[in-house]
Design goal:
nine-stranded mixed β-sheet; 8 helices; disordered C terminus; 9 strands; alpha/beta
Length: about 230
């Protein structure tokens, strides 16, 4: 049975298989997610990567990677905007805008220097720079194997218009934490009870944090007035 937690009027979390839960949801403004993409299979001698075709028949999804792809593709039908970390491991439509996390690592390191996110956005490529050591400090204690820094997900949401964000592979809830920080509505789905409980706790704690009141910025001076001020 699906477990549902309403952490606030704007935050709803589901424990269960996104392939089953997505059919109960309506349209959202954006999907922002970091799905699994089978690297564990590759490291254990398998093919690795979730290369199921965008137009493949869901009934053919026999592998774990294929099942993940079914959930991902179904979620993308609910939104016009999407950001998918690890999107280079899926067969997705061509994109003008990829988001890049530059980890500022030397060539001698064996781990990846960047991570890529596919998007459906009509923007130029954008890059977020944070070295791996700083990222680990921000996430300490790290609570999920592929957890992203909060600041990275806040940066991602900067490129999204609209209020309601869906993450069908919520993990430890970082997308939800970012949504709370930016006063966005959030729907999260996670299949693993351990990580679902972590996400509930992290997002609940974030909801308790004080928020500074919004202050309307002062109008910027017109170009001519600015020039006169500088000249004076």
């Amino acid at each position: 049975m699906t477990r549902v937690e309403h952490l606030s009027p704007d935050i709803t979390l589901y424990l269960g298989d996104c392939r089953e839960i997505l059919s109960m949801l309506g349209k959202v403004d954006a999907v922002v997610t970091d799905p699994p993409y089978g690297l564990g299979d590759k490291w254990n001698g398998g093919g690795g990567g979730a290369k199921s075709s965008w137009n493949f028949n869901p009934s053919e999804a026999k592998s774990w990677d294929g099942q993940i792809a079914v959930g991902l593709y179904a979620s993308l039908k609910l939104a016009d905007q999407a950001i998918v970390w690890g999107g280079n491991y899926y067969e997705l439509p061509p994109s003008r805008c990829w988001l890049v996390w530059d980890k500022v690592q030397p060539d001698t390191w064996t781990t990846g220097q960047c991570e890529l996110a596919w998007t459906s956005l009509d923007r130029p490529v954008r890059a977020f720079r944070m070295c791996q050591a700083v990222a680990h400090d921000e996430m300490r204690p790290k609570q999920h194997p592929t957890q992203k820094p909060d600041s990275l997900m806040v940066w991602c949401l900067k490129w999204i218009d609209g209020e309601t964000i869906l993450d069908p592979f919520m993990g430890s809830g970082t997308t939800g934490v970012a949504c709370v920080q930016l006063d966005r509505k959030f729907i999260g789905i996670e299949i693993e009870p351990k990580y679902f409980d972590i996400a509930c706790r992290r997002i609940s704690n974030e909801l308790k944090q004080p928020r500074l009141p919004f202050v309307e910025p002062k109008a910027k001076p017109k170009t001519a007035e600015l020039f006169e001020t500088v000249s004076a």
